[in-house]
Amino acid sequence: MATSTYLSNPTVLIGAVDCSDQCSSASLSVGYTALSSTAFGDLGERYSKGLQAVEVTLTMFASYGASEMEATLFAECGTGTTTLVISPSGTTESATNPEYTITNAMLATFTPINATVGELSTFEVTFTGGTFVRDIVSP
Protein backbone atom coordinates (compact mmCIF):
# COMPACT_ATOMS: atom_id res chain seq x y z
CA MET A 1 0.00 0.00 0.00
CA ALA A 2 1.38 3.38 -1.01
CA THR A 3 1.65 6.03 1.65
CA SER A 4 2.75 9.61 1.69
CA THR A 5 3.74 11.81 4.56
CA TYR A 6 4.09 15.54 4.83
CA LEU A 7 5.20 18.12 7.32
CA SER A 8 2.08 19.75 8.71
CA ASN A 9 1.97 23.36 7.55
CA PRO A 10 -1.68 24.27 6.85
CA THR A 11 -2.86 27.40 5.14
CA VAL A 12 -5.70 29.04 7.09
CA LEU A 13 -7.74 32.00 5.88
CA ILE A 14 -10.55 33.55 7.90
CA GLY A 15 -12.44 35.77 5.52
CA ALA A 16 -9.73 37.56 3.54
CA VAL A 17 -7.19 37.38 6.40
CA ASP A 18 -4.34 34.87 6.08
CA CYS A 19 -3.95 33.56 9.64
CA SER A 20 -1.43 30.82 8.86
CA ASP A 21 1.39 32.59 10.68
CA GLN A 22 -0.73 32.90 13.84
CA CYS A 23 -2.23 29.38 13.86
CA SER A 24 -0.59 26.53 15.78
CA SER A 25 -3.32 23.91 15.33
CA ALA A 26 -6.11 23.33 12.81
CA SER A 27 -8.72 20.59 12.71
CA LEU A 28 -11.41 20.26 10.05
CA SER A 29 -14.31 17.81 10.29
CA VAL A 30 -16.70 17.48 7.34
CA GLY A 31 -19.59 15.14 6.73
CA TYR A 32 -23.35 14.92 6.61
CA THR A 33 -26.15 14.67 9.14
CA ALA A 34 -27.51 11.12 9.32
CA LEU A 35 -31.29 11.06 8.80
CA SER A 36 -33.18 7.96 9.86
CA SER A 37 -34.85 6.25 6.90
CA THR A 38 -35.73 3.09 8.82
CA ALA A 39 -39.09 1.65 7.76
CA PHE A 40 -41.41 -1.02 9.16
CA GLY A 41 -40.01 -4.43 8.35
CA ASP A 42 -36.35 -3.34 8.33
CA LEU A 43 -34.10 -5.61 10.37
CA GLY A 44 -31.75 -2.79 11.31
CA GLU A 45 -31.53 0.94 11.28
CA ARG A 46 -31.00 2.67 7.92
CA TYR A 47 -29.86 6.22 7.29
CA SER A 48 -29.91 8.71 4.46
CA LYS A 49 -27.54 11.59 3.84
CA GLY A 50 -28.85 14.89 5.18
CA LEU A 51 -27.39 18.39 5.29
CA GLN A 52 -23.65 19.05 5.33
CA ALA A 53 -22.04 19.20 8.77
CA VAL A 54 -18.84 21.19 9.28
CA GLU A 55 -16.65 21.95 12.29
CA VAL A 56 -13.33 23.82 12.24
CA THR A 57 -11.27 24.13 15.42
CA LEU A 58 -8.27 26.46 15.44
CA THR A 59 -5.68 27.34 18.05
CA MET A 60 -4.42 30.85 17.37
CA PHE A 61 -1.67 32.83 19.08
CA ALA A 62 -3.17 35.80 20.89
CA SER A 63 -2.32 39.07 19.23
CA TYR A 64 -4.00 42.42 19.64
CA GLY A 65 -4.24 45.34 17.25
CA ALA A 66 -6.35 46.62 14.37
CA SER A 67 -5.51 43.78 11.97
CA GLU A 68 -4.47 41.07 14.44
CA MET A 69 -6.18 37.86 15.60
CA GLU A 70 -8.32 39.33 18.38
CA ALA A 71 -9.82 41.93 16.03
CA THR A 72 -10.35 39.38 13.25
CA LEU A 73 -12.07 36.84 15.51
CA PHE A 74 -14.12 39.46 17.33
CA ALA A 75 -15.45 40.75 14.00
CA GLU A 76 -16.54 37.22 12.99
CA CYS A 77 -18.11 36.24 16.32
CA GLY A 78 -21.86 35.71 16.00
CA THR A 79 -22.16 36.62 12.32
CA GLY A 80 -22.87 33.17 10.85
CA THR A 81 -21.43 34.33 7.52
CA THR A 82 -17.74 33.53 7.94
CA THR A 83 -15.78 32.04 5.04
CA LEU A 84 -12.78 29.84 5.89
CA VAL A 85 -10.26 28.37 3.46
CA ILE A 86 -8.03 25.57 4.74
CA SER A 87 -5.50 23.33 3.01
CA PRO A 88 -3.00 20.90 4.57
CA SER A 89 0.18 22.34 3.09
CA GLY A 90 0.53 25.51 1.08
CA THR A 91 -1.76 27.43 -1.24
CA THR A 92 -1.65 25.40 -4.48
CA GLU A 93 -4.43 22.85 -4.51
CA SER A 94 -3.83 19.37 -5.91
CA ALA A 95 -4.82 15.78 -5.29
CA THR A 96 -2.17 15.70 -2.55
CA ASN A 97 -3.12 19.12 -1.14
CA PRO A 98 -6.92 19.48 -1.20
CA GLU A 99 -8.33 22.88 -0.34
CA TYR A 100 -11.56 23.15 1.63
CA THR A 101 -13.67 26.29 1.42
CA ILE A 102 -16.29 26.61 4.14
CA THR A 103 -18.93 29.31 3.69
CA ASN A 104 -21.46 30.65 6.18
CA ALA A 105 -19.75 29.13 9.22
CA MET A 106 -20.46 30.56 12.65
CA LEU A 107 -18.13 31.41 15.49
CA ALA A 108 -20.71 31.37 18.30
CA THR A 109 -18.38 32.24 21.19
CA PHE A 110 -14.94 33.74 21.54
CA THR A 111 -12.69 34.10 24.62
CA PRO A 112 -10.57 37.20 23.86
CA ILE A 113 -8.38 36.83 26.95
CA ASN A 114 -6.91 33.44 27.81
CA ALA A 115 -3.70 33.94 29.78
CA THR A 116 -1.46 31.79 31.97
CA VAL A 117 1.72 33.02 33.66
CA GLY A 118 4.82 32.08 31.69
CA GLU A 119 2.98 30.78 28.61
CA LEU A 120 2.13 32.21 25.22
CA SER A 121 -1.52 33.20 25.18
CA THR A 122 -3.75 31.47 22.65
CA PHE A 123 -7.33 31.59 21.42
CA GLU A 124 -9.06 28.26 20.85
CA VAL A 125 -12.00 28.84 18.51
CA THR A 126 -14.55 26.54 16.89
CA PHE A 127 -16.51 27.45 13.79
CA THR A 128 -19.60 25.32 13.11
CA GLY A 129 -22.17 25.02 10.35
CA GLY A 130 -22.11 26.27 6.83
CA THR A 131 -21.28 24.34 3.69
CA PHE A 132 -17.99 22.97 2.38
CA VAL A 133 -16.44 22.47 -1.05
CA ARG A 134 -13.32 20.38 -1.67
CA ASP A 135 -11.06 21.60 -4.47
CA ILE A 136 -8.08 19.72 -5.94
CA VAL A 137 -7.72 21.71 -9.17
CA SER A 138 -5.06 24.41 -9.25
CA PRO A 139 -6.34 27.70 -10.68
Descriptive account of the structure:
This protein has 139 residues and is mainly beta. It has one domain (11-37, 44-135): Pnp Oxidase, Chain A (Roll). It is 6% helix and 45% strand. It has one helix and eight strands; from the N terminus they run ββββαββββ. It has one helix at 69-76, and strands at 11-14, 17-18, 23-36, 47-61, 82-87, 99-107, 122-128, 131-135. Strands 1, 2, 3, 4, 5, 6, 7 and 8 form an eight-stranded antiparallel sheet that branches. The longest helix is centred in the middle third of the chain and has 8 residues, at 69-76.
Summarize this entry quickly:
The protein has 139 residues and is mainly beta. It has one domain: Pnp Oxidase, Chain A, CATH 2.30.110.
The radius of gyration is 18 Å
Q: From the helix content, strand content and strand pairing, which structural class follows?
A: mainly beta
Sequence stretches where pLDDT stays below 50 over 5 or more residues: none
From the N-terminal CA to the C-terminal CA, the straight-line distance is: 30 Å
Classify the helix fraction into a percent range: under 10%
Number of domains: 1
| Mean of all residue-level pLDDT scores | 91
Please write out the topology.
Blueprint: E1 11-14, E2 17-18, E3 23-36, E4 47-61, H1 69-76, E5 82-87, E6 99-107, E7 122-128, E8 131-135
Antiparallel strand pairs: 1-2, 1-5, 3-4, 4-7, 5-6, 6-7, 6-8
Characteristic key phrases:
Pnp Oxidase, Chain A, mainly beta, 8 strands, single chain, globular, 139 residues, eight-stranded antiparallel beta sheet, 1 helix
